[in-house]
Amino acid sequence: MKTRAAVYVEFQKPLVVEEIELPDPGPSQLLIKQFATGICHSQLHALHNPKTTTPRLMGHESTGVVVNTGSEVTHVREGDHVMVTFLPRSTVPGAKTPLPVVKWRDQEIHSHGNNSTWSEAILADANFVVPLDKSAPTDVTAVIGCAVMTGCGSVLNTARVQAGDSVVVIGVGGVGLAAVQAASNVSAYPIVAVDVDDEKLAFARRFGATHGVNSRTEDAVTRVIEMTGGGADFAFDAIGRQSTIATLLHYVRPGLAGYRPEGGTAVLVGVPRPEATLTVWDALLPGSKTFKGTNGGSPRPDHDLPMYVRWFQDGKLPLDLLVSRRYRLEQINEGIGALERGEILGRSIVEF
Ligand code: CND
Ligand code: ZN
Asked: Ligand 1 within 6 A of 215 CB?
């Protein structure tokens, strides 16, 4: 079928919205007519990476309704509402998911990752599609597939933060705010948001941050060490810049031999540049600290994504606050530009 998508045609040039052609679903695939999709900072990294080949389709979180399924798809049916994510529901080591061959201007066009959701309709493998209860709204839930899964999952699954643990989240954008909310939901304390923007720090309080530190005007590491009495149990870098990676372990408390030998844990959530480095000597070794990465919040999508929908429905995850701006597909470059300039509180979405 023919549909309209945002196509990244040429390096560093604005995307164009044009017709693409999707093949019929293969046995494990399904055709989804989309409701909404999120604009994640990871897409900006990809757009600015000279290694990203063009033409290419982008986007990795969305909601939609199933309009057609392949013969092997059993967990959802035509008419079901679904969430699309970028990590698989199940993995057979070594096995590869076949990507659909999508055509644009009569040539084959590549998908960025397992799905490309900046499109009115998509063909996705069933492994990346999770049912969305029909009682849930179909717009704000579009950010569950990445921002929420990654941010909340990094706290719940990767770090396993417990009640009373102290947490610092550096960078409170779409992903960082979800991390703050998950920390709040497990009763972590204090929950310190660190950002370069006072408005974003104030916004983070609405997701459960108990303190805010502007790292542009204060020495954030020193402030967090003071607030937490020696360093946080957990620090999350939800930006991934060289400067934030380099300081991340300094926010975390050292272990104390003979008292509490294990140090705190730093989790890298933001996507770093491939050449990013970490100096391990003073930051890691003497304090017996742990440094971890997280791929999408170490999720089990079938379990985690519906849980986040229930959190929203129970008032424990304000997705209607997290989604602060809405665009049409034709405005995709406006949305990308606004995120780039740091103008988006939380996350923006494209509605179809
Ligand atoms: P978004 O742009 O919404 O948020 C970034 C936040 O960081 C904003 O609030 C900024 O004001 C703030 N900020 C920028 N520079 C600094 C600084 N030097 N110190 C403190 N704060 C700063 O981004 P997002 O939430 O969409 O994405 C955040 C990161 O997470 C980004 O690197 C993205 O690629 C990554 C990510 C990782 C994964 C994963 O699987 N690990 C999945 N999705 C996104
Ligand atoms: Zn993302």
From this structure: yes
Q: Which of 37, 40, 61, 112 most suits a substitution to test ligand 1, by most atoms within 8 Å of the C-beta?
A: 40
Is-above-0.90 flag for pTM?
A: yes
So what CATH class is 147-293? alpha beta
Tell me, in angstroms, the distance from the centre of ligand 2 to residue 204's CA.
Answer: 19
In ligand 1, the atom with minimum distance to the C-alpha of 45 is 34
Q: Is the beta carbon of 42 within 6 A of some atom in ligand 1?
A: yes
Segment among 14-23, 47-56, 137-146, 231-240 with least mean pLDDT: 47-56
**240 within ligand 1 shell (Cβ under 6 A):** yes
Where do the domains of the chain lie? 2-132+318-351, 147-293
Q: Tell me, using a 6 A CB cutoff, whether residue 342 lines ligand 1.
A: yes
Query: Closest Cα to residue 62, out of 323, 342, 271, 310?
Result: 323
Here the tokens at position 69 are 């399924």
Q: Taking a C-beta distance cutoff of 8 angstroms, is the pair 349, 140 a contact?
A: yes
Question: Residue ranges of the alpha helices (H) in 41-122?
Answer: 41-48
* Residue to mutate, 239, 269, 336, ligand 1, most ligand atoms under 8 Å from C-beta: 239
Separation between Cα atoms, residue 309 and residue 232, nearest integer Å: 29
Q: Is the CB of 244 under 6 A from ligand 1?
A: yes
Maximum separation of any 2 CA atoms in the chain, in Å: 68
CA-to-CA distance for 210 and 122, rounded, in angstroms?
40
335 lines ligand 1 (CB under 6 A): no
Residue among 352, 342, 337, 322 nearest 13 (CA) = 337
Residue 282 has pLDDT above 80, yes or no: no
CB contact set of 260 (below 8 Å; sequence gap of 6+)? none
Reported as a single tens digit per residue, the pLDDT across 132-141 is 999 999 999 9
- Superfamily classification of domain 2-132+318-351: Medium-chain alcohol dehydrogenases, catalytic domain (3.90.180.10)
For ligand 1, is residue 61 a contact (CB within 6 Å)?
A: no
149 vs 41: CA distance, rounded Å: 14
Give residue for tokens 């970028």: 86
